[in-house]
């Protein structure tokens, strides 16, 4: 009888939150709103800079990245044995947003186009959307943790 050779140890592939589509989309939303808040903060910081025109990251940038992620995401086989067909997960979305000039409703004599009230409204709306996406992300993770626990745990 031949001695049986021990099979090489394989590391178990760990599931990442981005492997679940809804969590990947929520992470993109959090990144978008975080970057947009940074741009709004820069606008407020330059409220007295002569000739400064405020920037904003339009919602269309996020929607473009989101639609790209939804249309190009293909799930295929993942090879765990040498005889398996190779496969990969291709996720679209770039996560890089382009800030564009978005002058407010008024321009001062020195050419500054930042209206603090309008920037504060944008900031408040952005913060609410960020907190909504964060809450959904946290609830989704807690549901996954609850499902992963054994009965009676």
Uncertain residue segments = 87-94
Number of discrete helical segments: 3
Q: What general form does the structure show?
A: elongated
Provide the helix percentage: 40-55%
Cα-atom Rg, whole angstroms? 23 Å
Q: Give the CA-CA distance, first to last residue.
A: 45 Å
Characterize the largest beta sheet: strand count, sense, and whether it forms a barrel. Answer: 2 strands, antiparallel
Strand order of the largest sheet: 1-4
What oligomeric state do the depicted chains represent?
Answer: single chain
- Mean pLDDT across residues: 79
**What would you call the structural class?**
mainly alpha
Instruction: Classify the beta-strand content into a percent band.
Output: 5-15%
Task: Tell me the series of helices and strands, N- to C-terminal.
Answer: HEHEEEH
Q: What is the strand tally?
A: 4
Q: What would you say this structure looks like, in words?
A:
The protein has 153 residues and is mainly alpha-helical. It contains three helices and four strands, in the order αβαβββα. It has helices at 21-45, 59-72, 116-148; strands at 55-56, 74-75, 89-90, 100-101. The strands form two sheets. A two-stranded antiparallel sheet has the order 1-4. α1 runs antiparallel to α3. The longest helix has 33 residues, at 116-148.
List the SSEs and their pairings.
Layout: H1 21-45, E1 55-56, H2 59-72, E2 74-75, E3 89-90, E4 100-101, H3 116-148
Antiparallel strand pairs: 1-4, 2-3
Helix pairs in contact: 1-3
């Amino acid at each position: 009888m031949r001695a049986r050779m021990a099979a090489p140890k394989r590391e178990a592939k760990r599931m990442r939150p981005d492997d679940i589509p809804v969590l990947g989309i929520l992470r993109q939303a959090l990144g978008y709103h975080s970057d947009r808040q940074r741009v709004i903060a820069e606008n407020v910081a330059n409220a007295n800079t002569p000739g400064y025109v405020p920037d904003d990251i339009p919602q269309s940038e996020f929607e473009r990245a989101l639609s790209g992620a939804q249309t190009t995401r293909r799930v295929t086989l993942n090879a765990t044995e040498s005889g398996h067909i190779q496969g990969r997960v291709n996720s679209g979305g770039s996560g890089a947003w382009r800030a564009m000039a978005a002058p407010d409703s008024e321009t001062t004599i020195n050419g500054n186009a930042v209206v603090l009230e309008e920037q504060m409204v944008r900031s408040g709306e952005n913060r609410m959307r960020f907190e909504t996406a964060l809450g959904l992300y946290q609830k989704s993770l807690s549901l996954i943790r609850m499902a992963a626990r054994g009965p009676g745990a």
